[in-house]
Amino acid sequence: MSKLVIVESPTKAKTIKGFLGKEYKVESSFGHIRDLPKSKIGVDVENNFEPTYVIPAKAKKRVNELKKLAEKAEMVYFATDEDREGEAISWHLQKIFQLPKDKQKRIAFHEITKKAIDAALANPRDINSDLVDAQQARRILDRLVGYKLSPLLWKKVAKGLSAGRVQSAALRLIVEREEERNKFKAEEYWTVEGLANKNSQKFKVALYQENKKTLGKFDLDKNKAQTAVKDIQLAELIVSKVEAKKTNKTPLPPFTTSTLQQDANRRFGYSAKQTMMLAQQLYEGIKLNGRGTVGLITYMRTDSLNLSDDFIEQVNNYLKNNLGSEYTVTGGRKFKKKSKLVQEAHEAIRPTDVENEPSEIKSYLDKRQYKIYELIWQRAVASQMAEAVIETTSVVIDAKNTPWNLKAVGSVMKFLGWKKIYQSNGEDNQLPELKKNDQINLEKLEALQHFTVPPARYSEAGLVKAMEKLGIGRPSTYAPTIATLITRKYTTKEEKRLAPTEIAIIVNKLLVEHFPDVVDYGFTAEMEDDLDHIAHGQKEWQPIIAEFYQPFIKNLNMKEKELNKKEITETATDEICEKCGSPMVIKLGRFGKFMACTNYPDCKNTKPLNGNGEVEEPEKTDEKCPTCGAAMIIKTGRFGKFMACQNYPKCKTTKNLSKSTGAKCTKCQKGEMVEKYTKTGKIFYSCDQYPDCKHAVWSKPTGEYCPECKQLLLHAAKNTIKCEECSFEKTE
């Protein structure tokens, strides 16, 4: 063997292997092969923050295998991803192998195609120490914050909690949005809306002016709105003004990591983590018949909007051949990123070959992969297309002999341009041909009551957008940050939006009050900028960490002494314990707030609280305890409601309270599918005849059955229903 190429993943290795000759051996490191130890902090704060790296037990065998292969090779090429994480993996491998400098080279590419791999091998370089330093600085900063601050949360709030530099700033966004919602007071407002027609073509109209003055949102009350309706219904309606305006709409730029995550979440309901997993699969390679394994998209962790000149030319030729030259842009279109420094990946996310049309390769992709690929392909191609031309017509309609004017606004697409490839949602209000002094017929008009709504909780897409706007995190951190907040039970998903838990609100309050720098948006963004400067060789990493760490650890030591757990997690109440007469307090448990006796442990009386913080009285049932004969009551626990003996804690008998889905089990034909929880709190659905029938599914049954195979139909991704067995699928 003469040449060894090392990448991170087996899939990536397999794809690259297909492009290279027999003189190359392509191997995978299976991800990171060295890291800070799990059992201790692993950073010598007294010795210029020197890190101690260890090889995890699960990686030792692989590291030894790679080391032996490297020693035998004529040349070793480190071909890990082109970002900071990838550079660091190559650096760790280099340190372990200890090869002569002339026996090792770094190659980088942002797409896995034969052309890109050949170009990389023809232009090898040394490992970029600036990128390694930036990755190392991030890792050490995150370790210092996590390992120092998390134990304080365990002592002062509750066990099992964690804090992190980016994680805690993102949590603050979620909690502050909840506080806005709680403070919000709804205001009533009224509108007048309806349908008019001209020459049998209907169009929407709305009240616009009173005495020629444009109405504001809160200018109408109920009486005035109803008066306007009556007046207009009796009046002659005449067009007084028609104004048409052409607008050229520029396409959106190609995807960055952030915008891909946002669009996939909005359109398909995919989490940031799911989107990155699917994009990784497309990047590392998909097997296409007759062509081997092909990398379909460029590297997916990037905040660059740049597209290569080759790709722009490729798109230009594709558009000329398939749509016509009127859809092209002479010289291509360039987009500029507003941020000062973009990540090292050179390009936006795009298809590696525009000729790989989504419809042509659909049969080689699963449905989720296809949706992501189609989105990336359409967005990249559309970014290089001619502007869409939209004509917007605004029509003012006088209600004669009244103070009221109506307005109708409609849009007509004059030239599709980029929208021919990449359609966005939204319907145009099509207007008939209208001119001044035309008489209009009114079909329907009504006064509508509305109330202002509180700001919505963040969806994953909204949170990623907010993080990017504030400069919190970078492309590689958005998805893992959100995943961590969900895993750590700091947030739950309610109607696909992120709601903070009780414990999140308390932790955030503690951090904002006592560790403001850790959750300060400006400070977190400035730290990200510093990491970017390190990556570009403009700053040294140790002074950046020292500047953060010295005041941080001084404050932490002071707060260790000052903070009192009871003051943070307990709230006094007027309630008196009915069992021993002691005062009751609201305490914070692992799964939220509850009321407890202050005479604990002598008295263990506790009471659950509902979402409004009020004592939740147990629900009585007609069922008797099978152990002691007392009444069974319904209680609320970690995973929702369950049945328990009234004599608890003397009798600890409990029973599942399963929530029916209304769907019959299609396996045993006897039972019903009910909602249940795993040990980790994840919902699943199984037959209530368990253990006799072990039929179970992760997605919620609809209560309907597949028309093709008669098995359960399940709620799948956004607005999609799928069969549990066959390929049947439909839209809700």
From TrEMBL:
Question: Which residues does UniProt mark as catalytic?
Answer: 299
* Sequence ranges assigned to domain Toprim in this UniProt record: 2-112
Q: Name one GO biological process term.
A: DNA topological change
Q: Which UniProt keywords apply?
A: DNA-binding, Isomerase, Magnesium, Metal-binding, Topoisomerase, Zinc, Zinc-finger
Name the catalysed reactions: ATP-independent breakage of single-stranded DNA, followed by passage and rejoining
Q: Where is this region: Interaction with DNA?
A: 162-167
The record ties this protein, via InterPro entries, to:
Topo_IA (IPR000380), Topo_IA_2 (IPR003601), Topo_IA_AS (IPR023406), Topo_IA_cen (IPR013497), Topo_IA_cen_sub1 (IPR013824), Topo_IA_cen_sub2 (IPR013825), Topo_IA_cen_sub3 (IPR013826), Topo_IA_core_domain (IPR023405)
Residue ranges constituting the Topo IA-type catalytic domain according to the UniProt record: 128-556
EC number, UniProt record: 5.6.2.1
What highest taxon heads this organism's lineage? Bacteria
| Swiss-Prot/TrEMBL site (Interaction with DNA) positions | 32, 138-139, 142, 147, 154, 301, 488
**Pfam families with a match to the protein in the record:** Topoisom_bac, Toprim, Zn_ribbon_Top1
What Gene Ontology terms describe what this protein does at the molecular function level?
DNA binding; DNA topoisomerase type I (single strand cut, ATP-independent) activity; zinc ion binding
What NCBIfam families does the entry give?
topA_bact
Q: How does it assemble?
A: Monomer.
- The name on file for this protein is DNA topoisomerase 1
Natural source organism: Candidatus Komeilibacteria bacterium CG11_big_fil_rev_8_21_14_0_20_36_20
